[in-house]
Amino acid sequence: MKNFEYFEPNTLAEASRLFAEEHAQLLAGGTDLIIGMKAYTETPKSVISLQNISGLTGITKDSDNSITIGAMTKVREVELSEDILKHHTALAEGAAEIGSIQIRNLATIGGNIAHASPAADTVAGLLAADAQVHISGADGERTVPINELFTGPGQTVLTAGEIITHFRLPSPASGSHYIKHKIREVMDLAFIGVASAVNVDNGRITDARIGLAAVAPTPIRATEAEELLKGNEPTDELLAQAGEAAAAATSPISDLRSSAEHRKEMVDVLTRRTLQYALDRAKD
Fold it and tell me: Which residues lie across from 49 on neighbouring strands?
């Protein structure tokens, strides 16, 4: 590990100023950064800890049933939150897939998203929750929809000095579900991640959101599949059409873990499966 300067700012403004400097990195949970520094794939000149900045942790449910999650909230807290388990089950299930319990007790949801891995386990659930990402920087605050945050593998719309502060989940779902396609039972990178969230009224799907991970250069929403579902009764034929539409929205790669063809085929299968789970939960 190369030598670096270490800072512990007490305010977002100070952290933003330091982070804007060249070759600076933020330290949240450290589960990605420290590994990268030890492997010399990350060689920052300065590391800025966010631990001392108030207001970046916690999960709160607001009067309109929206949920706010601080960016420094531990992944384990997201996994176990009663409000998230009830209203955004897919996100809790995605959080539970990250590493081991020890890792989830260190890792933060903000770090998991800011790292911008297309295969991040919380991202599909956040997409299905239609999450809004709140960002703070030298020019003030702004909000970006989660599906507009990513620009490529490891890349986001964040500019120099900008920091994710919290996520707002505006739309509770009647039922949601996350499926991770993997080889090992635990601590494995997703071949594919699919999250579905539905609202149902009088036997018809009134709203549907489908988040896909590890099947394109960035995490994506399967918007055409969502539109097919809205306003219709959830028949097997309809779910099959949605699965095909979701697969058509992907542009996966072939690598050592899986072929592009297999990924595309499994998006079809897993979208239908996760939609059925979400619909079953909506009936409970």
Answer: 27
CA-to-CA distance for 15 and 20, rounded, in angstroms?
9
| pLDDT in the model for residue 188 | 64
C-alpha distances (whole Å) from 67 to each of 130, 134, 140, 153, 266 are: 11, 13, 22, 27, 31
CA distances from 228 to 90, 223, 224, 240, 280 (A): 21, 9, 6, 11, 19
pLDDT for residue 258: 80
Helix H or strand E segment including 59: strand 59-61
Percent helix / strand / coil, the chain, rounded to 5: 35, 25, 40
Residue segments in the chain with a per-residue pLDDT below the cut of 70: 184-188
The pLDDT value recorded for residue 190 is 72
Pairing of strands 46-49, 5-7: parallel
The identity of residue 174, as a single letter, is S
The pair of three-digit structure tokens given for residue 10, joined into one six-digit string: 């007490």
CA distances to 251, 261, 267 from 243, rounded to whole Å, are 15, 15, 7
